[in-house]
Amino acid sequence: MSVASKNLFELLGNDAEDDTPQAPVKTVDKSTMRSTKRNAEPEAPSRAAANTSARRNNASGNEAAFRDRGAGSDRNRGKTTEESARGGSRGGYGARVRGGRGGRFPRERDDRHTKGQATGGSDKQAAQSWGATEGDAERKDEQAGEAIAQAEAKDAEAEAAAPVEPEEPEDKNISYADYLAQQAEKKLALDSGLEVRKANEGSKLKKEWANVKEVSRDEEDNFMIGTGGKTKRERERKTKQLLDIDQRYVEPERPR
Predict the structure, then answer these.
(1) pLDDT tens, 203-250?
(2) Which long-range contacts (CB under 8 A, 24 or more apart) does 136-143 make?
(3) Beta-strand runs (E) in the chain
């Protein structure tokens, strides 16, 4: 029995042998038109030098700071602290003018400021924000404050000008007779405030205590005895059981 296998890649036809050979492409040389004379010597390009100088001067960032001859601490010590004239260049060697990037438009144009006429609000709005032109109330308050300040200053001057009399210390020393008289007065005042109990006062029963019952307590103390007590559980004492064994040792006979 034979098995036939079919190659599906044969349908693609990607074999290099099956492709038809292509003819090589011919190159055509065209004659160019000359604008210069044949015997003339070539001139050096002038724009190339300008471009190289422009590239050197257009350095930025760290490279520009490195090439700047006026930068550095030793150069800053020799500079003056006076500001340069407005509109003049600032910085060291090759510094550009003030303004935007590249110094094309200087800062003197004032692009950030409005060029139109300043238009404010109404007079009423200005009076509310910054104060009215007619400030009669504020003026009266200021005048009253000045008058009060002047009056206080006059009072202070008058007090300072008046001589201050030194106060004499109070004499607290008293004689012995006066001391005894004061003690007697204090004793009489204390005795007059005490009320002496009258005779048979409290023997009559008041109405408040008419319905009161006397409570008496027996001197003997009665204790309640419980009917049954707790039974104590007695544990059996463990006893050791000894077993007697009659042990005998018999020596085996030795062979001859």
Answers:
(1) 676 777 778 888 887 777 677 776 666 666 667 777 888 888 888 888
(2) none
(3) none
